[in-house]
Design goal:
Elements: E1 10-16, E2 19-22, E3 28-33, E4 38-42, E5 45-50, E6 52-55, E7 61-64, E8 69-75, H1 80-86, E9 95-98, H2 101-108, H3 115-123, H4 133-145, H5 153-160, H6 164-175, H7 179-197, H8 203-209, H9 215-226, H10 230-235, E10 240-242
Antiparallel strand pairs: 1-8, 1-10, 2-7, 3-6, 3-8, 4-5, 4-7, 6-9
Length: 243
């Protein structure tokens, strides 16, 4: 199995034998079955015996997978991959349903049904951009210091001797999204990891340890981005894993 390249704008989890309820998230979402059909309701429309779907941000839905596992990919809508996904939808459609695994593979042009094949297929659609070393400096800084609460646009600008506006333009050109979103998704990925793996740590401590001011701020961003509070992950930690 090939591991996905590091890309914080793709956050993937696997849910086992679980009802996954998500509403009004601000990410694109791709849901794919590992091995068995499942039931979903999308905008009030019942979809039975399906093997996956892709939906735009803010589309209410839920899934019931009583057998097998669901792979759930959340993707930042203004990242390069998010912008690519936006062009895949037919006009006036906000979701696409897959009736079989082969349908999903064909849609994403994946070689195998393995989740990493789908992720790598998405990454392969991104245009090649020569990476600016100043962006590398900032990405490495975020990886090492995401938990610092006092990070500001000026923090980044001072590191690479650019004005905040010029730096914002450079980072957007490289990634399709903003430094603030890159930092936020990096923090949220770590929140999800800790919520699933460190069952004795309180959510308040997890919020502080990942750079959020308090638990209400973390709850706000988790629900806004993924449609679920961190307590839902912690409560179901035996049935969810983070890729």
């Amino acid at each position: 199995m090939n591991k996905q390249p590091h890309n914080p704008f793709i956050l993937a989890i696997k849910a086992y034998n679980l009802t996954v309820e998500i509403h009004h998230h601000s990410a694109y979402q791709i849901v794919l079955s590992d091995d068995a059909p499942f039931i979903s309701t999308i905008r009030g429309q019942l979809c039975e015996q399906i093997y996956g779907f892709i939906i735009k941000p803010q589309v209410p839905h839920f899934c019931v997978a009583e057998k097998g596992a669901l792979n759930v990919l959340n993707i930042e809508p203004y990242s390069g991959i998010g912008l690519y996904l936006s062009g895949l939808f037919p006009r006036d459609k906000d979701h696409i349903v897959f009736k079989s695994t082969s349908e999903a593979k064909a849609f994403f042009q994946a070689d195998t049904p393995d989740i990493y094949a789908f992720i790598n297929a998405l990454l392969s659609k991104l245009p090649e951009v020569k990476q600016d070393e100043r962006v590398d400096i900032l990405v490495n800084y975020i990886k090492a210091n995401y938990f610092e609460q006092n990070i500001t646009p000026q923090t980044f600008a001072d590191m690479v001797f650019l004005s905040p506006s010029r730096l914002a333009a450079l980072f957007k050109k490289q990634t399709g999204s903003s430094l603030s979103k890159y930092l936020l998704w990096t923090r949220l990925r770590q929140v999800i990891y800790l919520a699933l793996t460190d069952k004795d740590r309180s959510l308040t401590d997890i919020a502080y340890d990942t750079g959020f001011y308090d638990l209400p701020q973390l709850n706000k961003y988790m629900y806004e981005m993924f449609g679920m509070p961190p307590k839902a992950l912690k409560h179901n930690s035996d049935l969810i894993q983070l890729y």
